[in-house]
Amino acid sequence: MRFLIVTLISLFSISCSEKESHDASQHDSMPMVLESDAPGAGDYSIYQVESNWHNQNATALNLSALVGRIQVVAMTYTSCEMSCPRIVAAMKEIEKKANGQIGFVLVSIDPERDDVSTLAAYATKMNLAKSNWNLLTGSSDDVLEIAALLGVRYQKMPDGEFAHSNIITVLNEEGVIVHQQNGIAVDLTQQTSDIVQKLLETTAR
Amino acid sequence: MVLPSAALYARQTARTVVPDGMVLIAAGKYQALYDNGGDVDGVAVSAFFVDENPVTNGEFLTFVMAHPKWQRSYVSPLFAESSYLINWAGDTDLGTVGVDQPVTGVSWFAAKAFAKSKGNRLPTVAEWEYVAGAGQNSPRGKDEEDFERNLLILTNQPQPNPLPKVGQSEGNYWGVRDLHGLVWEWVLDFNSALITGESRADANLERKLFCGSGVVGASDFTDYTAFMRFAFRGSISASYSGSNLGFRTVRSL
Predict the structure, then answer these.
(1) Does B66 touch chain A (CB under 8 A)?
(2) Domains and CATH numbers, chain A
């Protein structure tokens, strides 16, 4: 079977255009396509989704704004006291070894409580108030969608806490998933760190 | 002065018009299969509209013709597996597949996009289970004789090939058809059905969702068909496009 490569450039021009993101269903059009025998990397980029987010600085952004840099992504929520601080700690460990060359994204699974000001306070408290960290909040629908893309499962419990997967995802510069760490054990974090290093070396070459 | 008839009055004063092909579901409580240690009275479900029948191939064809990026050749592999709409003859050609058969081979992303194009959405687990839990004569099928037994018979039948047309089964209390025994159906929050790599010791859904020792966490041990649905939802990813999985849409009031 023949596949069609959707060119990355056309995708980004779609998702960066503001009017498109307001009502995608009204603006569906066939993207420019090139024929090929296999799907291109762009076809697997999670940046092709049209979800809308705000970060801790109240900046509105689409995921495509994250393009061009390796991103380490996790889904957490700020009032979580069990595993989320450990996920953040693991991400900081990865950051330490990457010398500020990569980005970090925390998507809140609790958009009801995690508004922009809560995210900003959390960023300060956890020492994440830096330009390479994006703490994102969006509609519950968009949160479900990115969870589906990342394979993260979560459920709100009756006590208001969330049960959730502890998955740390590495996205390459194009937004394609290149590695997923399932759990927060030290050796797993080390492995993710090594993979990020290799990616950085490949990019530098 | 002419007084309107009771029926006309009811129609005029109804706060909402039921959309074509949909059925109004009154608010109620859904007794979750897994109560997670709370919600003893069940999960509150607000009133909503639901499709009377699962979405058909004909309806999905209309959608992909208006939204070519959801056609088989153009859909991103991120959003659908290679089995996406595989039983169709071509991008916009159903071939031998019937227009009135339920559409299958659609991913969660595609089902969600279809729903959005109609101004609708996918049902939540609670909404779907609430509707599907109705019997013939009451919103709570469990109170009716043979309810569980009939569901089990329906669910354990091999999937007929080709699939029958939608709408041929008897509607339940709400008038909703084909909830059991035709195709599995996507729900919006399918990815809440199973937690892997769970972090919190008191909320280990994964254990509760499997048979054996895990079953002690369930609220109703006789609801075998619900166990099957929960296990199925827990086993699939959002790009899954299996030949046994379709969907229907809902709309909030």
Answers:
(1) yes
(2) 3-48 (no CATH), 53-204 (3.40.30.10)
